[in-house]
Specification:
Helix content is 28%, strand content 15%. The radius of gyration is 23 Å and the shape is elongated. A hairpin with an 8-residue loop joins β9 and β10. It has 9 helices and 11 strands. The strands form 3 sheets. It has a 6-stranded antiparallel β-sheet with strand order 6-11-7-8-9-10, covered by helices on one side. The longest helix has 16 residues. The chain has 352 residues and is an alpha+beta fold.
Length: 352
């Protein structure tokens, strides 16, 4: 049995063939990773004791087979550790900058102090022994362990998150690799047939339900009134990933159900809802019923994965939204100011 491997070269996609293997369920976890995330990988070999990465990856663009293979190790370790996909992109971009995806030994006079390996980690700074650092799987695991300890890394720009781990003398150098890292990670993910599921969530510390804001007025427009009224009526119902009501919801399921109450169909999942309707330029321009998107626990600013609904202001002009936050929490009203620094998009569904 064979499987196709997408190869990106000069912007064109070609394919090569590799054997298909059994699916392996990965159940490892690390501090800071989503506890409800799980990934399956399909390693391209059925030989006993095989790892998730193939022995020979085809080159992609300017990256050689060995370089792509090192990137594949980084990606597969990230998946095994249940680090969200954005973390894989950060790690691959970091290795592109630090070593051009080569597992570098000591370079003599050209060496930067005692830096070694894919991430140029230093034994003298507690990254491990030289032998450990020169093991790509070990090096990737150490990188991810430090990344997930960075508070708020999932909503940071890539270069800032990488710098928080690496402490480089050139903190802005990682940004230039982001497009190539995203392409390479996508190709490797397809090649390994990595499928990750997550319960999503807002990725924020728990917030109390503020209740019905003092002086909140429901919209005069009948459709918008129906949308907001329905959403408020769901307060206190539990978050359940994949749920669309009536007894529980996830974030996008609640949005879909609310707009359906007004006779308007919007897409089911956050990744599609972020493209629905028309863009709203700012928080100040919002009107009740608008959808507000943030990265959440497993998204980024460019690919947000959590959504809430703006419902209006209190008597003092403070803005509020309703959201289904995460597993273990319930639908609630929170101040929009809790989201203001990480709003990735605002969309206004088109009414019918």
């Amino acid at each position: 049995m064979t499987r196709r491997w997408p190869i990106l070269a000069g912007g064109l996609a070609t394919v090569v063939l590799a054997p298909l293997a059994l699916v392996v369920f990965v159940a490892l976890s690390v501090l800071g990773a989503s506890p409800a995330t799980a990934c399956t990988l399909t390693p391209p070999t059925v030989s006993p004791g095989a790892t998730a990465t193939p022995p020979d990856w085809p080159g992609q663009g300017s990256w050689t087979s060995d370089q792509v293979g090192n990137a594949a190790t980084i990606v597969s370790v990230g998946a095994e550790m249940q680090v969200p996909r954005y973390g894989w992109e950060i790690a691959v971009a970091t290795a592109m900058q630090e070593s051009t995806l080569r597992n570098l030994g000591h370079l003599g006079a050209d060496n930067d102090h005692d830096s070694l390996g894919l991430f140029q980690q230093r034994p003298s700074q507690g990254w491990g022994t030289p032998e450990q650092i020169l093991n790509p799987e070990y090096a990737a695991r150490k990188f991810y362990r430090r990344l997930v300890e960075v508070d708020g890394w999932q909503s940071m720009p890539l270069t800032r998150a990488a710098q928080a781990v690496q402490r480089s003398a050139f903190p802005d150098a990682y940004a230039k690799w982001q497009p190539e890292a995203e392409q390479l990670v996508a190709a490797i993910s397809d090649g390994l047939d990595i499928v990750c599921t997550s319960d999503g969530g807002d990725g924020l510390p728990p917030l109390d339900d503020v209740g019905l804001p003092d002086g909140l007025l429901l919209p005069a427009d009948p459709q918008l009134r129906a949308v907001v009224s329905f959403t408020l009526a769901q307060r206190g119902k539990p978050y359940v990933w994949g749920a669309e009501g009536p007894d529980s919801y996830d974030c996008s399921g609640l949005m879909m159900a609310a707009w359906a109450k007004a006779g308007v169909r919007i897409p089911r999942v956050t990744a599609d809802q972020v493209h629905t309707g028309v863009a709203v330029p700012s928080l100040a321009a919002m009107r009740p019923g608008d959808l507000i998107f943030i990265p959440g626990s497993d998204g980024t600013m460019s690919r947000p994965r959590h959504v809430g609904m703006y419902i209006g202001t209190d008597r003092g002009g403070r803005q509020y939204l309703v959201q289904a936050p995460k597993t273990g929490d319930v639908v609630k009203v929170v101040a929009a100011s809790n989201w203001s620094r990480q709003v990735a998009a605002i969309r206004r569904p088109l009414r019918q």
